[in-house]
Design brief:
By secondary structure, this protein is of the alpha+beta class. It has 5 helices and 7 strands. It has a 7-stranded mixed β-sheet, with helices on both faces. Helix 1 packs across helix 3. The protein is globular, with a radius of gyration of 15 Å.
């Protein structure tokens, strides 16, 4: 297999981001959610307007995992006031790590995760945190394997469905 490369996404990548975002979210969650709720979330959550706002936010960063020039996964990180919950200046939120289904089990998620940890260490953050759907056992196991522990819960709204996310964190220092 060719080497997977990671690169920071910019505003010029907005259509690629929209495509990979919608495809990976749909592959991950469409089996467990209604078509109506999925459609609403994919339209709103990955609209060009919302992605433009996120891509131009100084406290949010997107990274693509690429293989042979094709985007096969992505990572979204939030810091400062752009964090969805904690907004701790010494923390980094992993809001999303998504990989195309065809590349599950091929270490793409791990490579994106390691990029997030590298950035958190460079920033001297005390911890990294995230929210993961309580029914996404694959992701929960991935984060546990990487040393994350559950510390709280919050509600994630998918269309008109309120779902519980487990909040997990990894202490780096402090």
């Amino acid at each position: 297999m060719e080497e997977i490369t990671i690169r920071k996404a910019t505003l010029t990548d907005i259509e690629l981001l929209q495509k990979i975002g919608r495809q990976t979210f749909s592959e991950t969650f469409s089996v467990s959610n209604s078509e109506k709720n999925m459609k609403k979330y994919l339209e709103e959550g990955f609209s060009l307007e919302k992605l433009t706002t996120e891509l131009t936010d100084q406290n949010a960063e997107f990274y693509f995992a690429e293989l042979a020039g094709e985007v096969i996964g992505y990572l979204k990180l939030n810091s400062g006031q752009s964090q969805t919950e904690l907004q701790d200046d010494k923390a980094l939120e992993i809001e999303r790590i998504y990989v195309l289904k065809d590349f599950h089990g091929k270490k793409v998620g791990q490579i994106l995760y390691e990029k997030a940890i590298q950035i958190a260490r460079e920033r001297n953050d005390y911890f990294v945190w995230l929210g993961v759907w309580e029914e996404n056992q694959r992701a929960i196991n991935f984060y546990k394997k990487n040393g994350f522990i559950a510390f709280d819960k919050h509600i994630f709204k998918l269309g008109d469905d309120e779902q519980t996310d487990i909040m997990m964190k990894l202490q780096l220092q402090g």
